[in-house]
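Q: Could you fold this chain for me?
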Amino acid sequence: MTAPQSPDGPRPGGPLSGIRVIDLSAVISGPFGTSILADQGADVIMVEQAHAPELIRNAGPLAKDSGASALFVAQNRNKRSIGLNLKCEAGKQLLKDMVKRADVLVQNFRPGAMDRLALGWDVLSAINDQLIMCSVSGFGASGQYSHRPAFDPIVQSVGSYPTVQADAAGVPKLVATAVCDKLTSLYVAQSISAALVARANGAGGQHIELAMLDAGIHFLWPDGMQSCALVNSDGAASPETPGSAPFELYQTQDGWLMVFDVATDAHWQQLCRALGREALASDPRFSTVDARTAHRSEVTEQLREDAASYTTAKLLGLLDEIGIPAAPVNSRQSMIDDPHVNHRGIVVQTVHPSAGRIRQVRPPVIFSKTPSGLRRHAPLFGEHTDEVLAEVLEKSVEDIAALRADAVVK
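A: Sure. Below is the predicted structure, expressed as structure tokens.
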């Protein structure tokens, strides 16, 4: 898809062009966020341990010893990679020298790890008082859980996601994607952008603390926690009743369909008429959104019978014609092949030097004047060490050779 053009024409590089980010983060909660900054034009330099490449480089599909797993490629495009030994003083000094020339540093080590490396906020902000440092952790720097290792299902569980996802029998279910990791990354990108605006307005540098649990609960709250939002007069939270209308998928003759049948009362009446179910339209149990939510099992039973008599395409066509919110339940492949997805140009193909031809998703935000773009493939391990040392730190070929011989860089 072509981004809309402004009267002045687009400016190359993206809205964050000129911003340099030092990325010490790993796995998902940090890297996915810094990839958003990179897509938007920031110069993101991944700092990987000289003798320990990023954990997910060889985890999952596409790995095959290429150092470019599907997950790694998706989260690290548009970045540069430098291998740096942060366990030796020379490596730490190189990082400090990079910080002097950087705008942002992102890290998601366990709380206290950066201080133990003598690279904490107090040290780095003294080097560069305009630095924005974003520290990401599972449970925050303080509290009873701060010491715990944080994996997405663990954070989901503390944040009540499985309860919100519970099936009709009340059995809790995890969200089948790293939802807390990825939404935390959205906050990483947003909070850094906000801090950059604040700095431009004279606030100077600052330290951002971001916990996956905090972000996860904030993200869940508006709809997932509706039943707990209003506090009774005695101060107790409302009972754990459904906080929003439960959604159902309906099986057709040849697939599945999502029908949003509780959106409005007018939609419900139209749906009943379209299906020849006038008796349902006049049934007081289903006359309002609240009533249909309270009698959800009866609504579901009735609509399942109707959906089973249609093909997906025929029922979707019927519902689309009368304006009822509905959609086919796409498989992974049918989503890629979906005509609207293709019209939007959401999924694109590129070539990675070690993984070969791959699919990626274009940056979702379309800027009229400063378009985002796919400028670089996800880097090979240490692919840009020489380039970064020469460009950012003005090291000579001889300097770089000496650092590599001393195992300071990869």
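A (continued): The chain has 18 helices and eleven strands.
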